[in-house]
Amino acid sequence: MTKKKSLIQQIGIPRLIIGIFLLMLFIAAPMAGVSLTDSVQNVLSRFGMFSVLVLSLVPMVQSGCGLNFGIPIGVVAGILGGVTSIEFGFKGFTGIFIAMIFAALIAVVFGFFYGILLNRIKGDEMLIATYVGYSFTAFMCIAYLILPYKNPVSVLSYSGKGLSQQVPVADYWMKSKVLENGTRITEGLLNNFLSINILGVRIPVGMFLIFALMAFIVWAFFKTKTGTAMTAVGSNPEYARASGININRVRLVSVIFSTVLAAVGIIIYQQSYGFIQLYQAPLAFTFQTVAALLIGGASINKASIPNVIIGTFLFQGVITLTPTVINGALNIDISEILRMIITNGMIIYALTRRSKDE
């Protein structure tokens, strides 16, 4: 019994319950007339789309800056990187790579000023970051209208200037493909790269590889002297200060690192989704990413790559499958209502959980 209790404690009762619920949804899908292979494929695809965004929260959590409710800042950097790459006409993997480079450079600048601000309000980072995310997104709504982009794909059609609400990337970052059954699909290049078919489920290996690369970079970073100092600052700032660590500098590096990862993560999302979403869209990623990380077992001052993997899979699996299965069973379209209830319910749990519960 002791070993069983120990295993349950390691997994965590909340994650165990959510995991069992997700398994039940997979089992119920065929009974509700929903394709099981499509369900698995959708969950795997959404995991690839969101995983790097959730991963971007880890550096700030580890440095004691708390959960990054200011993730829209990194998302905006990724948006600017994406539309800049399209503005210059870069296509294919080159276009995605150039977009990531532009996004990372912009994110370094944004992250620097964001980090300076958070260093001035120690102890209230999560509260202030939420307002920073909202206010910066609102400011960029004005900036999008006056930025000098000219590509017809990106600008508003009626005026010829100002960026559109959605910028399609189908001609730049996506590829059309005919499946064995004759169906033509258009999917992101990373989704299609090295993708394999197992029992009718297409596995987006390319997105998993890019997540593995980013996760390795984060893991390797925390093995360096700066990464170790970052963990020390998050765990015990007084001890870190006594050890001669420049706390403000370490926190600043963590904020810049998180912002860069978020900028790269949103480009991975965009190439899979098919559009670069501007204006208010960055706000949609704040609570989803934070909730996913916390559901994975992280706390406000400790997070790991396994927390990212588990939390992203559980969160995206539940909000993807629940509306689909219930719609199929009841033959009524309440998907958006269910998605809002489930998403916000899981966010309430995630934001109110206590570390001692685990």
Automatic annotation (TrEMBL):
One GO molecular-function entry: transmembrane transporter activity
Membrane topology, record value: Multi-pass membrane protein
GO cellular component annotations of the record: plasma membrane
Transmembrane regions listed in the UniProt entry: 12-31, 43-62, 69-90, 96-116, 128-147, 199-222, 250-269, 275-296, 308-330
InterPro entries: ABC_transp_permease
Protein keywords: Cell membrane, Membrane, Transmembrane, Transmembrane helix
Chief place of localization: membrane
Alphabetized Pfam families for the sequence: BPD_transp_2 (PF02653)
First and last residue of the signal peptide: none
Entry protein name: Branched-chain amino acid ABC transporter, permease protein
Gene source species: Peptoniphilus harei ACS-146-V-Sch2b
